What does this fold into?
Amino acid sequence: MPSESPAAVPVVEPGCLLVSGTTLVGPTFRRTVVYVVEHSRTGTLGVVLNRPTGRALAEVLAGWTPLAVRPQALFSGGPVSAETALCLGTVRVGAAPTGVVPGLRRVQGRVVLVDLEVDPAPLSTVLDGVRVFSGYAGWSAGQLDD
It folds into this structure.
């Protein structure tokens, strides 16, 4: 009889989705999908994708509303630093703006981290859309692995 091989350990890297299991009942991450933005030896940073706050993006960052995808709302990115904002965008097919267009840093594939301090108007030619998050989710080194 062949021996069973150990289950593969999932690899966490930028661009991964962390989907909460049905047994997770704590309110912080219950029924969430987290997009991993950064993962390194020092820790992991991500944003909850599926928690709109109920506030229109126009109320807090009106200049970014024309680039925002529907619903044009501010999303709750996680329990850490809820007073700060983080923005993810999708680069248009064929565009290669990271390193060329100020304010964009590639995460994975066509997804970029967008600096909300830059003028959003020039970005409309390279981005398909953006979503803005209030706060983020964070884990210390090794916490997700455990």
Summary: The chain has a mean pLDDT of 89.
